[in-house]
Amino acid sequence: MPGYELMGREELAEIQDIFDHGAVLFRHGFDGLRQGRYKVKDFEAAMAAKLGTGHGLAVTSGTAALRVALAALGVGEGDEVITQAFTFVATVEAIIESRATPVCAEVDATLNLDPADLARRITPRTKAVIAVHMLGTPARLREIQAVCDQHGVALIEDTAWGLGGALDGRPLGTWGVAGTLSFDFAKTLTTGEGGMLVTNDAGVWARAAAWHDHGHENNPALPRWEDSRASSGFNFRMGELAGAVGLAQLRKLDAIVTAQRAHRDALWNAIHDLPGIQPRAVPDGAYETADALVFFVPDAAAARRCRAALLARGLATKILPEATSWHFAGAWTHMPELVRAHGGNLATAFPQSARWLGRAVSMPVGVTLAADAPARARLALTEALTEVRVDDVAPQLQAA
């Protein structure tokens, strides 16, 4: 959680620069008026350089980035796209809006896509796979990429929670043919709303750039009002104000992730030896963004007790266990396309994922952490996971 904690003078200065030099808020054109200020283009170039990709394309949201990526890959009616059962609804919404069939696979102990179940669900109609790095922990990209390569299927990374993370030293979002980023107000880097597609494939970028701009190819040989086009599209353009904020935020990314990792470690060190706590699995070679501290407890009742105890001591949980209805495909009966794809009954469609999620607790991690937060977390979870009254053990815990 994060970029919004550091919103300040740097972002304001980038916005002021727009108003001091023509006040053009549209990303294209008005070249004489804008005096060389192209904040969205600069943000795209800076992100591509940061991640080591050839191209970046800023859009209006992470959801839009997914939709644009699917359009650039030619995904449409008759195709299937596989993603994971634990994600935000937006991942499946983008598939549905592409007129493709959404298929969800199980998650494993990483709470990300289970490569073995992915392999079982691929069919001749599968056009793409969307792997999601939930709450900042990398998916098992080596195994997932191998499955996709075996079947000739495109891999897209939903990196909404993964910006600043890596696997084997390779930034998240750069493993697949395209990576998508989210900059909403609760993400590691924020522009309020916004997102980006990153890719090393020039063809994917060109199709995405046109599709997100009503089909405009922005042909330098033609004025915009006579621009060339090869397909229809939609309007998912990012505006200059968001681009300006993104530029300032991107310069803070490393500091944000470093702080979150330190605070996640401080919380974990305070609670890891409590009875019944099991860490979330993390792939070898992973560099997590530490958006949240996720762990497992014995059962769903214990998870609820943990949430209540943390809230009582002024702490919080995030998504797990309280918000799975927005993040677990087993609850999405409002999506008839998904229901049909899974035989009409989502309640029993993902038993493995349901078991992992039912036992999971997630604590949000920020750029700032109260000095006594680890001790309060230990007291709260001791209360939730043992028969001992916390009031009886508090002096000993505090002394320790």
Report on this structure.
This protein is of the alpha/beta class. The protein has a 7-stranded mixed beta sheet, sandwiched between helices. Strands 7-6-11 form a 3-stranded antiparallel beta sheet, with no helix packed on it. The model is unreliable at 388-400 (pLDDT under 50). It has helices at 9-20, 31-34, 39-51, 62-72, 89-97, 115-121, 141-151, 202-211, 240-250, 253-271, 300-312, 336-341, 351-358, 373-385, 390-399; strands spanning 55-59, 80-84, 101-105, 126-132, 154-158, 166-167, 170-171, 178-182, 195-199, 278-279, 286-287, 292-296, 360-364. Strand 2 (80-84), helix 5 and strand 3 (101-105) form a beta-alpha-beta unit. It folds into 2 domains: 3-252, Aspartate Aminotransferase, domain 2 (3-Layer(aba) Sandwich), CATH 3.40.640; 254-399, Aspartate Aminotransferase, domain 1, CATH 3.90.1150. Helix 3 packs parallel to helix 9 (240-250) and helix 10 (253-271) packs across helix 14 (373-385). The chain has 15 helices and 13 strands. It starts with 8 loop residues before the first helix and ends with a helix.
Count of β-strands: 13
CATH homologous superfamily descriptor of the largest domain:
Type I PLP-dependent aspartate aminotransferase-like (Major domain)
Q: Helical percent range?
A: 25-40%
Structural class determined from secondary elements? alpha/beta
**What is the strand arrangement across the widest sheet?**
1-9-8-5-4-2-3
Task: Please summarize the sheet with the most strands.
Answer: 7 strands, mixed
Would you identify the CATH architecture of the largest domain? Answer: 3-Layer(aba) Sandwich
Order of helices and strands: HHHEHEHEHEHEEEEEHHHEEEHHHEHH
Query: How many DSSP H or I helices?
Result: 15
How many domain regions?
Answer: 2
